[in-house]
Amino acid sequence: MDRVILIKYGELSTKKANRNFFINTLYNNIKEKLNVFAIKIYKDRARMTIQFRDEDLDKIKKIVDRIFGIHKYHIAYVVNSNVDEIKKKLLEVVKLEKFITFKIETKRSDKSFPIHSQDFNKVLGGLLLKNVNNVSVDVHNPDLWIKVEIREKETYIYFNNYDGAGGYPVGTQSKGMLMLSGGIDSPVAGYLAMKRGVVIEAVYFEAIPHTSLEAREKVISLCKKLVTYTNFINLHIVNFTPIQEEIYKKCPEDYCITIMRRMMYRIMEKIANKYKGNIIINGESIGQVASQTLTSMKVINSVTNVPVIRPLACLDKLEIIDLARKIDTYETSILPYEDCCTVFVPKHPAINPKLEKAIDAESKFNYEELIELTIENLNTIKIDSSESKKFEDLL
Questions:
Q1: Any bridge partners for residue 47, and if so which?
Q2: Is the C-alpha dihedral spanning 212, 371, 381, 222 positive or negative?
């Protein structure tokens, strides 16, 4: 063993009684994500390390970048915690780097190590000044920042610092049901929910023939993007055509969007109960469209007792687009295939709907029977990143 990926937990370190649960969940997620590689993972309450084959490093890094629960990680050289071996390894590895100035920072978690951290900085600095030509120390802005972490059995030497995905490992919270359309917002909402440890299942409302099969494929493609942050996602496809057609036949035009969203929430609650989901997640942002005013949200929300989580509620559109680009869903989301939320938008939807008027409009047709039929005919697809492609092909 010469190099390892050294993982630092970040927010997980703030946990007390539940800390082992969070670390074990992260361990299992990493193990599942990297199961196509010859690796070994070691964990304790402070750090996690991954042994790997050199030829796999670039592929592994792309996957590790997308595993929630990792704050920072480093590609570190490993050596026994022995003064002479540390000095020998440092001289060996710095010759692979290009630098004029350097800084050394030692952390000595093993207090039995015979030299204090500040003193060992001077020992190692003197070693480099003596054995490497034309270099000098710069403690403020060095070309090469050398980190040395001394533990009881092993010492880690590294020069790099990679940002992880942050957040909590997926699975440290229970399940949420994501209302996944083909737009820009909802995939970002799903990403942010997973970042807080939520296991997601996705629900897509389609209205064939008013929406196309290409629109469905677009949503499946978005799930494939999101599944790179977790192990699998169940995508539930709702045939919303009979309900939507009844709405536009029987309800006032300006209330059609309000009634449509209320029907969706009723269906989401039944799906959540069926698949043990504790929350509904959507991509709504306050005031973005007519159904996302505070008044509309109140009227629409009144049909369900399941908590509705809106991760994007206080973000503006440009902030959401930036996140969509970051997680690589934006280009898929802007493909020109309309979903059922956009294909029937009236010219003047109600911005401040009245609950009494919404209830009266719904009384014009037997939506309970249609909803039950919809749940009976639910079509579920399991999106698993290991089924048809290796992980790196999806990145």
A1: 8
A2: positive
- pTM across the whole model: 0.91
**How do strand 47-51 and strand 144-150 relate by DSSP bridges?**
unpaired
Which of 142, 163, 184 is the last residue in one of the domains? 163
CATH of residue 110: 3.30.2130.30
| Angle between helical axes of 256-274 and 355-362 (0-180°, round to 10) | 80
Distance CA 50, CA 31 (A): 10
* Mean per-residue pLDDT of the chain: 93
105 assigned to some structural domain: yes
Dist CA 7 CA 64 (whole Å): 10
Q: Which of 123, 140, 163 represents a domain boundary (last residue)?
A: 163
Report how far residue 373's alpha carbon sits from residue 395's, in angstroms, rounded to the nearest whole number.
38
Per the structure, the complete domain to which residue 77 belongs is given by 3-163
Answer whether 52's CB lies under 8 Å from 4's CB: yes
Residues 137 and 90: their CA atoms lie apart, in Å, by 16
At residue 211, the pLDDT reads: 84
Residue 291 and residue 265: Cα distance in Å, rounded?
Answer: 13
Rounded Cα distance, 42 and 5, in Å: 10
Model confidence at 390: pLDDT above 50 = no
pLDDT at 353 over 60: yes
34-41, long-range: CB < 8 A, 24+ apart = 34/60, 34/63, 34/64, 35/386, 36/386, 36/390, 36/391
Q: Is 383 helix (H, G, I), strand (E, B) or coil?
A: strand
Is residue 169, in this structure, part of any structural domain at all? no
